[in-house]
Amino acid sequence: MIPMNLKERRFLVTGGAGFIGSHLVDSLMNHGAVVTVLDNLSNGSRENLSQWIGRPNFSFLVGDCLSREDIEKAIQDCDIVFHLAANPDVRAGKLDTRIDLEQNLIATHSVLEQMRKTETAKKMVFTSSSTVYGEATVIPTPENYGSLEPISLYGASKLACEALISAYCHMFDIRGMIYRFANIIGPRSRHGVIWDFIQRLIANPRELEILGDGRQTKSYLLVEECVEAFLVGLEKTSDRFEIFNVGSEDGVDVTTIARIVTESMGLKDVSLRYRMEVEGGRGWVGDVKVMLLDISKLKRLGWKPKHNSFGSVVEASKHLLKELGYYEHL
After folding, report:
1. Has residue 1 been placed in a domain?
2. Are residues 149 and 206 part of one domain?
3. pLDDT tens digits, residue range 159-212?
4. How far is CA 222 from each of CA 29, 47, 135, 139, rounded to the nearest angstrom?
């Protein structure tokens, strides 16, 4: 379901060689848009965009959002900026306290500054995160929940980005759309619990280590459904600044994910070993143990997920195993 007319509209996608970004690029290109990707390839891959390289309506610039020159070059003549470039690893802030500040907040400021100066790019679509809510006491959590108290530097940086975008929208005649994501999964993903489990089980098919008590329960959504949500909101919202939750309507716990992955790999009698080093059974410092978003606001615009969390994890597991050629070796 892609309701809007994308033909010949001009988009900049920062982080467009990454997991979610490349799927967004696929959809934009398949519907005739003119797309420029800016990516420093720290997490993305040229391979994710290989089918589009050389097309007349596609440009790929290897560059960084922290570089004014790179952003200035990439944003020329673009109308809408999808800003996805960011540090994707919530856990990284524990080891490097500057990574979220620089890759998320300062990079977002750099993009906004160039939008402020240009005459054409006056709309930003930003990928935020459910981590901005912290440990919410209202489940499912609506967009107007407060107070927002993130428990990770990643969540704090995403919330700071949202505030900065809001201020630029109200001061400099920019429009902003914020999407707060649940866990987005599917083909090309190279981080997260499913990917980690697959890698561990390939290394040792007899035992799987699980961080935390396994009862961490969160919402999971396939990446293609996430991209549809992007475009439905983009078409049907005209407010200066808007926030949408994006996710499934239920959750699945980590132990169940472990069982889905082992079954997808055709493994039996796998021993699950739990490593509990963080209080409350969390997987790591800054891990939100229960997350489920209220998506009724986006549903009122006509979007809703096709799969529940369990089904999304099943599909994502199979896709990733096929990408790795796992079934070819059985």
Report:
1. no
2. no
3. 999 999 999 999 999 999 999 999 999 999 999 999 999 999 999 999 999 999
4. 19, 20, 23, 21
